[in-house]
Automatic annotation (TrEMBL), chain A:
Organism taxonomic ancestry: Bacteria, Pseudomonadati, Pseudomonadota, Alphaproteobacteria, Hyphomicrobiales
This protein's GO CC annotations: plasma membrane
Entry keyword annotation includes Membrane: yes
Protein's UniProt name: ABC transporter permease
Domain of life: Bacteria
Pfam family name, one: BPD_transp_1
InterPro entries: MetI-like, MetI-like_sf
Membrane topology classification: Multi-pass membrane protein
Listed transmembrane segments: 20-40, 68-98, 110-132, 152-171, 212-232, 264-288
Organism: Sinorhizobium medicae
Main location: membrane
Gene3D superfamilies: MetI-like
UniProtKB/TrEMBL annotation, chain B:
One GO CC annotation: plasma membrane
Keyword match Hydrolase: no
Entry's Gene Ontology BP terms: transmembrane transport
Location in the cell: Cell membrane
Transmembrane region(s): 31-52, 86-111, 118-137, 143-166, 201-225, 258-279
Organism listed in the record: Sinorhizobium medicae
Keyword Cell membrane: yes
UniProt topology in membrane: Multi-pass membrane protein
UniProt domain ABC transmembrane type-1: residue ranges: 86-279
Gene3D superfamilies per record: MetI-like
Protein name stated in the entry: ABC transporter permease
Alphabetized PANTHER family for the sequence: INNER MEMBRANE ABC TRANSPORTER PERMEASE PROTEIN YCJP (PTHR32243:SF18), MALTOSE TRANSPORT SYSTEM PERMEASE-RELATED (PTHR32243)
Top-rank lineage group of the source organism: Bacteria
PROSITE patterns per UniProt: ABC_TM1
Length: 303, 293
């Protein structure tokens, strides 16, 4: 309920947003404006100072001519699709199992927090200690059972599979928590009603629980997709984009051109392109959702 | 609802419980769950075990056990930059929690309880929605130039400011949800008693919002402690960098001291694991509430 006393607005209410706006719009917005200016400039460093000169669309032309840049967009797309589906499916399975389980319910919730809370750098370290061809525990295990050892991090497809596995291990707990919370909010009466009508466990899950979870599943897919585009830390240490650039996600490509090749204009232009691409996809998703909602509404009205 | 329908519901519930208790499928589903949980925990446990293994045992092709405290001792020795990095991380986390907590509480309070002018409201709301969607890496070039211009490149102050910007939107959202739960009648009562807006905030609303502030601070602290990208790109390494960057720099191209690496990783992880056991309810609530809204 809105308060009647809200109309009196003093100096205090004006000051309260100042720190937020100063930091996010002031520093953040100013920095983003710099990225845009840099994207259309050529930059050199002379005596520790940046020297700017206008470059028009040259940087963007360079990106379109760069195989690594185009490849990084492609491999990021594959990475996002693979990790989103795997982590949402695994998270859903965990949520259903944890809800059923009386004995491990509490334990599972605490234990599943750990991978998500561990620093991404440490996650890559943990998996280096497993996947390393020389000292990794996976090869020790394979060797013990007389199986051929692996060198996934040294192979192109193997490295991509490895970063997908690591990302799914790292972030499935987030998908689990969101889906589990939604599952606990599912109306028990609907579930009991289906059971009384003779539905077996699988039918209850397929025809009652999953449809009711759909909004939460879509929300989780969206959040996991955004996280996938942001991914950087784990790959930086685990594969450093290699072998042969096979795991160069967009963020690794930006870091490489900006800090190793010192190509500031190009790095900024690529940042701008990625943000534009993301906004486009998000706008598309929102439009489709609105259209489907309105169509759903129309059908409701007609019936 | 009548008492009769309650009784029927209870009966149905007990019957289905009875049926389920006897079923084998409960045991199989528990078994699958335990296997999955092991998969999520075993990698972390393995790192902690390696932290107490000698390098010789780690490199060995066989399953050797050679327990030692050397790794932990050597990583904490004054000759290593690890201790300085630990202090850096603690300073950055403290600074970010304070700055982010203050800025997010004030902004969330005015969003939730005060009448803001339309464009101020929109500016805060839009930044809360947009900033979490941007890949931090896309912002790095801009931050880098801004920090050079202000002379803050490589300083802990710079890291505090950048971490605050990255965490502010989510913290503000969590705080706003917290303030929304406080009934407006309290604000009216204080106002009738003649308290100014600032006084109402400080004496009544802030103490009541403490649970949300603790949750959001916990989140900010964990995110900042784990932060790697800004530390990597905005400091020059060695004793100037935070802990996460220090751990990454232990992976050298020529000789990797695996035991030290595992020890450093474990030292970074154990505080987080303890925090997540102690405050699991808070963390889960924060994660799910913030994400759903």
């Amino acid at each position: 309920m809105k308060s009647l006393f809200r109309q009196r607005s003093g100096v205090f209410s004006k000051i309260t947003t100042v720190p937020f706006l100063l930091l996010v719009i002031g520093v953040g917005g100013y920095s983003w404006a710099q990225v845009i200016v840099m994207a259309f400039s050529r930059l050199r460093i002379e005596a520790g100072q940046f020297v700017w000169s206008p470059a028009g669309f040259d940087n963007f032309r360079d990106i379109l001519a760069n195989d690594v840049a185009l490849y990084s967009v492609a491999v990021t797309t594959i990475f996002v699709i693979a990790t989103v589906w795997l982590s949402v499916l695994l998270g859903l399975l965990l949520a259903l199992l944890v809800q059923r389980s009386k004995r491990f319910n509490r334990l599972a919730q605490v234990v599943l927090l750990w991978p998500a809370m561990v620093a991404p750098v440490v996650v890559s370290l943990i998996w280096l200690l497993i996947l390393s061809p020389n000292i990794g525990v996976l090869n020790k295990l394979l060797d013990t059972f007389m199986l051929p050892t692996q060198d996934w991090l040294g192979m192109e497809v193997g490295a991509i599979v490895a970063i997908v596995i690591v990302d799914v291990w790292h972030w499935t707990p987030v998908a689990f928590l969101m889906l589990y919370t939604a599952l606990c909010a599912v109306d028990e009466e609907a579930v009991e009603a289906a059971r009384c009508d003779g539905a077996n466990e699988w039918q209850v899950i397929r025809y009652v629980k999953i449809p009711m979870l759909m909004p939460a599943i879509l929300g989780t897919i969206f959040i996991r997709a955004v996280m996938g585009v942001k991914a950087f830390d784990e790959m930086y240490l685990l594969t450093a984009g290699g072998p042969n650039n096979a795991t160069t996600l967009v963020s690794l490509h930006i870091r490489d051109v900006f800090f190793d090749q010192l190509n500031y204009g190009y790095g900024s232009a690529f940042s701008v392109l990625i943000v534009l691409l993301m906004s486009l996809i998000i706008a598309l998703v929102l439009t489709v959702r609105t259209l489907r909602h309105s169509r759903f509404f129309m059908r409701e009205v007609q019936e | 609802m009548t008492a009769g329908s309650h009784a029927i519901k209870a009966e149905v519930a007990t019957r289905s419980k009875l049926r389920r208790r006897h079923s084998l499928s409960d045991m199989t589903s528990d078994a699958v769950l335990v296997l999955l949980l092991l998969g999520f925990v075993a990698p972390i446990v393995w790192m902690i075990i390696l932290a107490f293994q000698s390098d010789r045992a780690i490199i060995s092709m066989f399953w050797e056990i050679d327990l030692t405290l050397d790794n932990v001792a050597s990583i904490l020795s004054p000759a290593e930059p690890f201790r300085a990095q630990l202090v850096n991380s603690i300073i950055v986390v403290t600074g970010t929690v304070v700055l982010c907590g203050a800025a997010s509480t004030l902004a969330a309070y005015s969003l939730s309880k005060l009448r803001l002018s339309g464009w101020l409201n929109a500016a805060v709301n839009v930044s809360c929605a947009v900033v979490p969607l941007l890949p931090p890496m896309a912002l790095v070039p801009g931050f880098y130039v801004t920090l050079i211009q202000t002379g803050l490149l490589g300083s802990l102050t710079g890291l505090v400011i950048l971490n605050t910007i990255l965490n502010l939107p989510f913290a503000t959202l969590l705080m706003k949800i917290g303030f929304d739960d406080i009934p407006p009648a309290l604000q009216e009562a204080a106002s009738i008693d003649g308290a100014s807006e600032a006084r109402t905030f400080w004496m009544i609303m802030l103490p009541l919002s403490m649970p949300s502030l603790i949750t959001s601070s916990l989140f900010t602290a964990i995110m900042t402690w784990n932060e790697f990208l800004m530390g990597l790109t905005m400091t020059s390494g060695g004793t100037t960098s935070p802990l996460s960057v220090g751990i990454a720099s232990l992976v050298q191209p020529y000789e990797v001291r695996w035991g030290q690496l595992a020890a450093a990783g474990s030292l970074a992880v154990v505080p987080i694991m303890i925090a997540s056991v102690v405050a699991s309810k808070r963390i889960i609530a924060g994660m799910t509430r913030g994400a759903v809204k």
